[in-house]
Fold F-BAR domain-containing protein.
Amino acid sequence: MSIGACVGIKDALAASRLANGNGDNYQLNQYIGKSFYDGENFRAIIECLDDGYNIAQDLIELMQDFRDNEREQARTLTLLSEKWLTRLKQQSSLASYHTTKRAQFDVVRVTKELVRVREATCAEIDKVIDKYRAHIDETYISERLRPGRKHRRSNEFKKLFKTSYASLREVSDELEKLRTQEKKAQDAVRTAERACEILELDSTTTDKHLARAHEDQSKKYTVLIDIKRKIRETKKQHKNAQKVYRHKAMEIFKQCQYEEEERLNQIRETLLDFIQAMHTPKQTNDLNEIFSNLSNKVTTQQNSFDDLLFWAKTYGIESELSKSLPLTPVENDDEEDDDEDLIVESRLAKKSSSHESHKHEKHPSTIRIENEIDDEEPSITVSAKARLRKARPANNSTEKKHHTTTTDLSSTTLAVLNHV
């Protein structure tokens, strides 16, 4: 330790020892590498308790930054939704239409639900911050002579340490004074010894002068011995006082550690509450439900076949499939998606029309007409049958055009027979 102090590496070694075995980096301070029981190093634990207020303020600021980030993301989602709703409305109606366009609107509108979830997260974080701030306000009190706050028991602990250290400090001061006197006495003895040596080497020195020099040397040596005896006695007192102080200091330190443990536990509890607020089971369930509903909505309501028929019907492409397609009006983009039943009915009607158009290429009524003609007029010529076949397309076209109207088969049969 002495060599380290001489070359200035003691503090660096102590800091390295603190950080050894983990990735933490500790800032150097005046108490690193020193004994807690030496001098007034007990102030280290007092400053530890007082500095807890600054650590608490940093933690509050950290949580506020996370909350502000969540709010900024919510605002970003809102702006994104507004941008893309406008963008989708401006898309070409030739290439963006019907169920596929609605699906894109649904994806954009889901941002409202995401914003709701983030706002709920911000509200939960605010609750954690308010709870922790209330605890900090109770734990730390304002100082009179300087800005900032200190621990509510800081002055109490400081007085206890000073009172316990007073007896040891008195003995330590006495011991330090004796050591200073010892050094001076040693210098005086060495000076007296050199004076005696000079007189002994001088041939003109009388016995009286030499005896006086030796007497002075003896007195100085006696003073040095007396000081060393006092030092030995004071050291014993210092050792006893140090034992008493260590015991008292340890008791006070345990009380300080109780307060420090409470502070650390409060930080731990606050961090867990903060993590819970950032990622709650309810939030996870809400997000899963939002995206599950969105996925199901796109899966069930987007139909490329319906879109193709819609496009053909809208732009006058007549075909067997598009003739019976009922047009479903495209909702206003700002309206709610409450047309699911209409879409389902449209889809069923389209499939039914497709099936019927293939099934009734040759209508049963026409078949019955031919059967009646064959029964009543077996000798009808080929030319008459050809005329009958010419009448079928008109009848079939009429039936396709009025799919929901029932045809009077008896009157049709009479008309055809009269024509024959």
Confidence is low (pLDDT under 50) at residues 1-9, 330-412. DSSP finds 13 helices and two strands in the chain. The longest helix spans residues 207-278.
